[in-house]
Amino acid sequence: MKIAISAEGADLASNVAHRFGLSPYLLVVDTETMDFKALANPGATSRPGAGVRVVVFAVSEGVEVVLTGYCSPAVHNQLVSNGIKVITNVSGMVKEVIEKYKAGDFGRGLTVEGEKEQATRYINRDILVRALKSSVRQFANILPILIGVVLCIGLFNAFVSKEALASIFSGNVVLDTLWGACFGSILAGTPINSYVIGAALLNHGISLFAVTALIV
Prior knowledge:
By secondary structure, this protein is of the alpha/beta class. It folds into two domains: about 1-110, Dinitrogenase iron-molybdenum cofactor biosynthesis domain (Nucleotidyltransferase, domain 5, 2-Layer Sandwich), CATH 3.30.420; about 140-215, no CATH class. Helices cover about 55% and strands about 10% of the residues. The protein is built from eight helices and six strands, in the order βββαβαβαβααααα. It has helices at about 50-60, 75-80, 95-105, 115-160, 160-170, 175-185, 190-205, 210-215, and strands spanning about 1-5, 25-30, 35-40, 65, 85-90, 110. Strands 3-2-1-4-5-6 form a six-stranded mixed beta sheet. The longest helix has about 45 residues, at about 115-160.
């Protein structure tokens, strides 16, 4: 495994530098052989684009873990998105820090950014799954109502003619209201069905008074 460490000097006896993006050197260490490469940090100049150069360097070197004191949010996000774990709050001699990492003994003060990011992704995925399940249940609950609406429209158009309705609802406000109330009590069902029947009546030219009485 290759680890990139922000360092004050060009050897393993150097101290870990505080800022990953602005440290004088970056040491790329093979944890199995302890062979290392010391390179001047391409982002140490603080010029625009310095953080991007650091990320490109880490990715091109095949780094899997970054150990540093501090890593800016922008650089951190780019490293994690490229599959590189970022561990901050690291201090001490580079060689000792590597040995602690290999032994899994970092102390309680270290922050493992990559693991936190991965955990957040798992939580978000779980929330998404629950939301999808809830949506499916809601759709299953309203599906019978939708089927009933479609059947209601079809049956009404098939068996109730415009002439038959005109013979019942003559246009008289009082009689239309009375007949609408009567049909509303007979055809009482779900509010959705009442609105569907009311819309069909309006399409057939029935007065608003009759439709209102039917729905109410």
